[in-house]
Amino acid sequence: MIHYIIMTIGALIGIIVLILSVVVHEVAHGFVANKLGDPTARLEGRLTLNPIKHIDPVGSILIPGLLMITNAPFLFGWAKPVPYNPYNLRDPNRDEALIAVAGPVSNIILATLGAVLFRVLVMGGEVGLFAEILIPFVIINLVLALFNLVPIPPLDGSKILFSILPVSMYHIRQTLESFGFFIVIAFIVLFGGFIGPAVFSLAELMLGVAI
User: Fold this and answer.
1) DSSP string, 2-68
2) What pLDDT, on the 0 to 100 scale, is given for residue 5?
C-alpha cells in the first residue's frame, strides 16, 4: 500500500510539473508573437501562467496519464496551442520560426535553472523533497524541448523547418499537419526508446548525479 501511495504521489507530481512546463512553453510562443507584432494571444487572454487557460484534456491529462500507467520511457504532453495570426507579423517566415523556437528555448531555460538550483541545494546539504522534485522538473523540460524540436507536424521543429523551405512545399505541410497527431504517436512508439536514454544522460550531466 505504501509503495502504491508513493508511486501515485510521484505520478501526480510529474503531471503537475508537466502542466506547468507546457504552460510556460505556450506562453513563450504567445509572448514572442506579441513582441513581433501579433497581439492575438494577448487579446485572447493566453499570456497568463494560469493553467486553466491552457490545459488540453487530451494532451495535458490523458496522454501523460497513459504514459505514466504504461511506464513509458519518458513523460510528454502538450497544452492548447497559443493562437497567432501570421498576417500581423512583420516577416511571416522568419517570425514563425522565432515564435516556434521560443517554446523549446523556454523549456531549456527552465531545465537549466532547475539543474542549477538542484546543484546549489545539494552543495548546501539540502537534499529534501524540493530537491527531489527538481529531478523530474529538469527531465520533463528537457523532453519538451528536445521532442518539440523534432521536425514533424505539429511540433515546433516542423514550423522552423517549413519557415526555411520553399513556399511550393506548402501543400506537403498541409498534408502532414492533417495527420500530425498520428505521426507524433507513431514517432513516440518507434523512437521513444531512444529519446528516453538521451534525455536521462543529458539530465545526469546537468544535475551532476546518476538518475
Assistant:
1) HHHHHHHHHHHHHHHHHHHHHHHHHHHHHHHHHHTT--HHHHTT-SS--GGGT--IIIIIIHHHHHH
2) 52
Cell 526555411 sits on residue: 164
Q: Catalytic positions, please?
A: 26
Q: Find out whether 34 and 41 touch, Cβ atoms under 8 Å.
A: yes
Question: Does the pTM of the predicted model rise above 0.85?
Answer: yes
Amino acid 20 reads L
Residue among 12, 22, 209 at smallest CA distance from 118: 209
Residue pLDDT, tens place only, 91-100: 988 999 999 9
Q: Looking up cell 498576417, which residue turns up? A: 87
Stated length of the chain: 211
Judged on CB neighbours under 10 Å (0-12, 13-18, 19+), 129 is: exposed
The identity of residue 136, as a single letter, is: P
48-82, pLDDT tens digit by residue?
A: 999 889 988 888 888 777 777 777 666 777 888 89
